[in-house]
Amino acid sequence: MSHPRLLLLNPAGDQQDAIDLAEGAIxxxxxxxxxxxxxxxxxxxxxxxxxxxxxxxxxxxxGSDNGTWLGPVKLPPDAPxxxxxxESLRVGPYxxxxxxxxxxxxxxxxxxxxxxxxxILDEASLTLTPGRPAVLRGAVANLGNIVDHVxxxxxxxxxxxxxxxxxxxxxxxxxQLNPGAQAPVVLTVPPSFSR
Length: 195
Fold this sequence. Notes:
Low-confidence stretches: 102-111
Number of helices: 0
Distance between the termini: 40 Å
Strand content: 35-45%
Helix content: under 10%
Shape: elongated
Radius of gyration: 20 Å
Largest sheet: 6 strands, antiparallel
Structural class: mainly beta
Order of helices and strands: EEEEEEEEEEEEEEEEE
Number of strands: 17
């Protein structure tokens, strides 16, 4: 099983770093002894501990002066809390996100996420050849703890250019994803639109 990555976003919201979150603990804080050092006065010397047990991430505020926020909730000090992948963790002006790949899927392709649902594409781009169909494969994964019904939308091209059952917004045709489940997605650009 692949490990999640910890994505560090700077105060402007740009990704500053990505750290593999192997089983065990990562310490985050202002001091040099931490695995992730954030040089900002609102970050405590030892601010937060992030742990991964192979299935779930937990976060523990280490009694920081300014607190640690998981989504809209301020964490109580010294009390481990589960970290749902759809929530961001705020440490001072920095945000941390979990990038959890669907089981058995590589991170080579393009990954997009909306809340509890993550879309992983096998390829980050698609080459169109006139007169030939083009196929884009991937998977959609439910990272949450409730059943979700989803469909896929494609931006940047006319809707008529792309076909596939995952695009259906009809209630009885949407993909049903149980918690932790994934479903394959195949999208096709028919030959008449790849010219």
